[in-house]
Amino acid sequence: MEEKEIRQTLSDIREMMSKSSRFQAISGWSIIVIGLYAAVASLMAAAVIGVGDWFPCFENLQKYANLNTPSRIRIAAFIAIGLFALSLLTVFVFAMIKSKRHNLPFALDKRMCQMLLDFFIPLVAGGLFSMALVMQGHYGLTSSVMLLFYGLALVNCSHYTYPILRYLGYAELILGIIDCFTMSHALLFWFLGFSVMHIVFGIAYVLMFERRK
Q: What's the rounded Cα separation, in Å, for the pair 158 and 203?
């Protein structure tokens, strides 16, 4: 009986240490909102680029755009950059709200700095690589690069928070790899990765870690 109690105590201690070292302030609702942002950004990019086979309703918009393909791609890239900045702000605001509501630690300490560093290193590298591809006119793999490096960023920092973010990263990596071998559907994979996957995993995050609190 004493041995069972010791094991249970050790198990409880390990669980408490895991929770205390885990960044819990990330809100699942912010993940869902980012997915909604990405859905709107995808529609805007489709309107600018003119993806008639995917969104036939944008064919007329393309006729009046008077933009060549490089200009359209650059505008779509600026939309993606704006989405990224808005997403970061959303995550930060939702995390602050959640930390205050549930008395969770939210400070720029050494652990959070390391988490941000592990997240931004692959993300910035992927962003610069994507920018170079756009500037040199190599548009075909841009969406693949975004998905792959974003997936790597999520996997890289997931051990600081809940494991479900790691699986979101795996999903982004799988979509990015498939996109590498698929022609003419870049925006569709971008939409699936940044919109659909975020909404699905955000809902799962809320149900698993936030609804019961």
A: 17
